[in-house]
Design a protein that fits this description.
17% of the residues lie in helices and 20% in strands. By secondary structure, the chain is α+β, with helices and mostly antiparallel strands.
Length: 125
């Protein structure tokens, strides 16, 4: 796998993914593409986590997704995200456990100021 990242000083997220290869190999090579008006250079990134850690100032190592550069606190959430992020269908369907849903938090309901009844079976005389 070969991932090429870009760097832009003017953006809020300075490091971004420019190219992600479609092939899957055992090893992954991450490159940072630095360019000026007249020159261009590639630098090997040994750890995505450490390059993002120096940018954010958060010193604790965290698993980082190589595709979207999202950081995770737990490795379990990281691995669940990685399966979804690497797939072509980037949506997941999660159905409720119970067959019926119930509203329980009545203390959070809002007072009903206006009620509108609409239908197609009424006539104006």
């Amino acid at each position: 796998n070969c991932n090429i990242y870009g760097y832009d000083e003017n953006e809020t997220t300075n490091i971004f993914l420019k190219y992600n290869s479609d092939f899957s190999f055992d090893k992954t090579v991450n490159l940072l593409h630095l360019e000026t008006d007249e020159k261009s250079h590639y630098v090997l990134i040994q750890s995505i986590d450490s390059i993002l850690r120096t940018k954010t100032g958060f010193n604790k190592p965290q698993p980082t997704c190589p595709n979207c550069l999202r950081r995770f606190v737990s490795t379990q959430k990281f691995h669940r995200h990685l399966i979804l992020c690497e797939s072509e269908n980037k949506q997941i369907e999660r159905m409720p456990q119970h067959s019926h849903l119930f509203f329980e938090n009545y203390q959070y309901r809002q007072p009903n100021i206006l009620t509108v009844y609409a239908g197609n079976n009424f006539h104006i005389l």
